[in-house]
Amino acid sequence: MSMNAKRRNSFLTAGVIVLLILAYVGVQFSGTNNDKEVRLITHNAFVITPALEKLFTQKTGYHLTVIKADDAGSLTNKVILTKNDPLADAVFGIDNTFASKAISAGVISGSFTPTDFGDVCFNYDKSWFTTHNIPAPESINDLIKPAYKGLTVVENPATSSTGLAFLAATVGKFGENGWQSYWRALHSNGVVVDNDWEKAYYTDFSGSSGKGNYPIVLSYSSSPADEVRANDQSQTANILDGCFRQIEYVGILKGAKNPQGAGSLVSFFLSGAFQNSFPTSMYMFPVDPNAKLPKTWSKFVTIPTKTYGGDLPITALREKWLNQWKLING
Fold it and tell me: Where are the beta strands (DSSP E) in the chain?
């Protein structure tokens, strides 16, 4: 079975659930609110093309205003801190590592709706390792070896969803009694911690546009499809060990000034046009099993056979993990 077929079969249930959610809540494209502006607060990596934004307005009559709020962790904190006077009508980009925190704080009207997913995995710069005549890493265990000292950049789990995803993955892989030892070794081996994915990937990583100093970065299994060069080959590849399956959501904020418009936006996120845009605009898999994937994905995107941390009680243990992580990493 091909990678795409496996992915579509695995997430067919997710697509059905989404459709049932929409049928239950009765979300429609059209709203009756006189306010024709819909405000969306989201993470910095959110992308909507002008064509899609125009299509949204044509279908709903609403105009979209996008508010960027750093990474998913900062986004979650911001919507919680402003819940009595919401900055937006809807929120997108809170994932399964932070969703329970937002739900517990009572900032979501109704429930979150899954929109896309991806595997948080390490990427490495193939050219760098070839040039330096060092074997490319194959496991996250390699990252603590002397040969890879000072080569890795990750994201802060207190502010970044990718960072928290990897922290959960290390707990899942090494256990409650072993993950701290792994992080101590990683810290001693010169790991760099950035506050958000964008800085880590686009500034500090050597294999992307920033041409930074670090050839190993915590990113996504789909990221190599964005690094295809003129020779029709990707400059980067994945480490398929120690990955975490991340799911992103969209939701209507409690106290929204335009809840009808927010409902229209939720529906639009699940429309074929927007679902088809996820791979090319945000490099995530759409939850719609019928959505189209770019040809480059079948060649350069690999899915890990095993992921870690997704079955852990992240809600109950998040603060404990973060406090222990801070003691190690300062």
Answer: 37-42, 63-68, 90-95, 108-125, 152-155, 192-194, 216-220, 236-253, 285-286
Q: pLDDT > 70: what percent of the chain?
A: 90
CATH, domain range 3-117+247-300: 3.40.190.10
Q: What is the DSSP letter of 147?
A: G
CA angle 236, 160, 278 (to 5 degrees): 55
pLDDT at 6 over 60: no
- Strands 63-68 and 192-194 come out as unpaired
Taking a C-beta distance cutoff of 8 angstroms, is the pair 239, 148 a contact? no
Picking from 327, 323, 292, the residue whose alpha carbon sits closest to that of residue 7 is: 292
Q: How confident is the model at residue 88, as a pLDDT?
A: 98
Residue with tokens 């050597």: 206
DSSP state of 226: G
Please give the CATH topology (third level) of the domain spanning 119-245+305-329.
Answer: D-Maltodextrin-Binding Protein; domain 2 (3.40.190)
List, for residues 88-124, the tens digit of each pLDDT value. 999 999 999 999 999 999 999 999 999 999 999 999 9
Q: What is the pTM of this model?
A: 0.83
pLDDT digits (tens, 9 = 90+) for 23-50: 434 333 434 445 799 999 999 999 999 9
Please list, in sequence order, all residues whose beta carbon lies within 8 angstroms of the beta carbon of residue 202, skipping any fewer than 6 positions away: 208, 209, 210
Q: How far, in Å, CA of 285 to CA of 117, rounded?
A: 5
Locate the domains of the chain by residue range.
3-117+247-300, 119-245+305-329
Q: Does residue 19 register a pLDDT over 70?
A: no
Q: Which residues of 69-88 are buried (b: 16+ CB within 10 A; e: fewer)?
A: bbbbbbbbbbbeebbeebeb
